[in-house]
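Contributing new records

If you add data, match the layout below exactly. Sequence lines come first and carry their own label; structure lines follow with theirs. Keep one chain per record. Anything else will be rejected by the validation script.
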Amino acid sequence: MLTTVDYWVVAIYGVLVAALGYAAKRLVHNTEDYFTGGRRVPWWMAAISHHVSGYSAFAFVGYASVAYTTGFAIWTLFAWPCFVALMIGAYLWAPRWSRLRVQTPIEYLERRFNNTVRQVFAWSGIGVKFIDEGAKLYSLSMVVHVVTGWPLQQVIVGTGIITILYLFMGGFWATILTDFAQFFIQFSITLVLVPLALKAVGGWSTMWSSLPEGMGSLFNGTITPWFVFVYAIVIVLSYNGGTWGLAQRFYSIGRAKDARKAALLSGFLYLLYPIAIYTPVWAARLIVGEIQNPEQSYVLVAEHLLKGLSPGLLGLFVISMFAATMSMIDSDLNALSAVFTKDIFERNFMKNRNDRLLLKVGIIATVVLGILTIQSALLTIKLQGAFKAMIEWFAAILGPVSIPLLFGMLYSRTTWKGALGAWAGGFVTFVFVKYAVPSLFGVSTGFPEYTGAELLVTFAIFYIEGLVSRRTPEEEERVRTLFRQLEGEGEQL
């Protein structure tokens, strides 16, 4: 349980976050500032924000469970795909995001395809994404609940309100500044935990030699090469812009070459930092014995090592969990409010641009979407089974939405029919392989099967349609102009 000093540490953290949000408020004058930081974000800050926004408390709960049961294979599943994704993205997508000069990741789809595609992708993304946000908030609350004994509902509401408040004040600048601070909070607790864990087990080599056979392997249990391959494709799509908040980190940077540097730095952090995160989990069996619920492995080891070591350390650990989840939630909420404000409200309901009104709409959208996130997290407590199904459906939408969004920047031949066909075909494939195949043919299907099939169908429709369809001369010229911009024609080095 937390001491008085720990409570003071948590309180000071809350004040710090509020102060950063208030400081960011002075940097916001219009929607471009609120949603993109005015495209003045330094590349190294964007890189760190991109990195921490890719984590949540799920990394310390769900992934920790995998790390506990499979060992080093969690690095193969999580760290390596993120690294590869961003090495690819540094040369394919990060510079192109910067060159687009957009305020939302969906905005350019009208120029590339048409407004119907833009609206379908905007509505479908917003319609499901806040449910995913609720799951992340719920994961955080479970961690804090285990350590502190605080009621689950109060943790969910409190964390959600803090996130809404600093986003309300400072928009994207608030997310960048708080992400930067939260990275160092996470890093500081890791610097304490890793040496303590390794000392407790006699060092790195002794730890692996003392664990069950296979725990030090790159692949183990359900983490097979095929599983990792399919999962890596999903990660490539997600971390290069399929997750809208991560795309923001690239188009908030003014120059394409700086966006490339941001992707490279974030990628190298993913390659190395997860080793530090999961070292205490790998050592858990040797420190606290067998753990009945592996999802609590990181929390229980941290509590065991930090308890009584120094006043305030356990409070710092709780803060690190807050930081991990709030970084991801604030990122996504700002991107979601941007899509609602620019792609839906302005595009469909405003004949004349009024930036002052749009800024107010963006702020209100942030609050409303934040409240929905809190509500979905509260709902999870009562409907965990139904909520799990909804999360699977969210994962199903990622591929069909991301492939036209990302490959629309690389492949110029596909028309709006291919974009919508890929979206619909991928989604139908997911439903068929996951639900119909087991009932009709008696064959069980898992993540690699239904996700792999969905991705294959989505890719196939997107590319093949481009080979058979033709655009009008006006459409052809519009797309050609867009691709000259994406490829940096005339760009100053």
